[in-house]
Design goal:
5-dehydro-4-deoxyglucarate dehydratase activity; 325 residues; DapA-like
Amino acid sequence: MTSAPLAARLREVAGPLFFPVTAFGPDGTVDLDVFRAHVRAGTDAGAAAVFACCGTGEFHALTIDEFRLAVAAAVEETAGRIPVVAGAGYGTALAVQYARAAEEAGADGLLAMPPYLVVADQEGLLNHYAALAAATGLETIVYQRDNAVFTPETVVALARTPGIIGLKDGLGDLDLMQRIVSAVRTHRPDDDFLYFNGLPTAELTGLAYRGIGVTLYSSAVFAFAPDIALAFHRALDSGDDALANGLLDHFYRPLVELRAKGRGYAVSLVKAGVRLQGLDVGEVRTPLSEPSAAHVKDLIEIIASGRTLLEEHAADGHAAPGGRA
């Protein structure tokens, strides 16, 4: 854990938010050594924060002991250089247990994922996240998606809840997000509530979210192609439309179209990408399954296309966008 508040550190990020995969060995157990190497590589490559054991990290498939060990490993590998945020989910009682395990492991904050299975009303959701935020001293980001979709009024209430510092949107309804941002700004004009684009390949909608003031985003691509993810992030920040649009056209759009070809590919395709870069993080745990060989071949070609574009951009006199994984 670092001494500075999580919210303050996230307001000043200069790179993508890194969601590492959780490494599993040949016998299916968590491989902490490989996981450490993955976190270390992402930290060294320029990640702004590590979100450990969240959706991409197969939170749903981890026991609480595995979760605690993995979060602690991420904390040790980052060594305070960047914040570590851990996932927490399921019903309130279990979510609180995971939150406390994350706090014991030294995490800086929580990403509160939707409750398991049930579809609750707004009052129930608010009570759930308020209880989770009150259970530890960790700052909490609430994840909107699936069965946890909020009205603007509920987000205003969340923003007023001690310990809750932001909303990550995985729904993609920009009309709703604009109304949420407006409502919080109207009712809490002095508040620095944080917003995150949390769609599976957030870069594809990065320009649209920036139009409503949302600049923070999760980057699954950073897990397997940090050079491409960093180049795109810098292009957005610097107004390099040629590079941003080139990557959207020749890397991100094809990647999203490939991801749509298989259920669970938002996780399993990322994990395949990490293996392609030379780090054997193992396969996904059931009930997820591995991408087909043909789709892995497509992924290889998409990554190559993205890197070719970076090389051509550099050859045209632009600064090189950093090293590869």
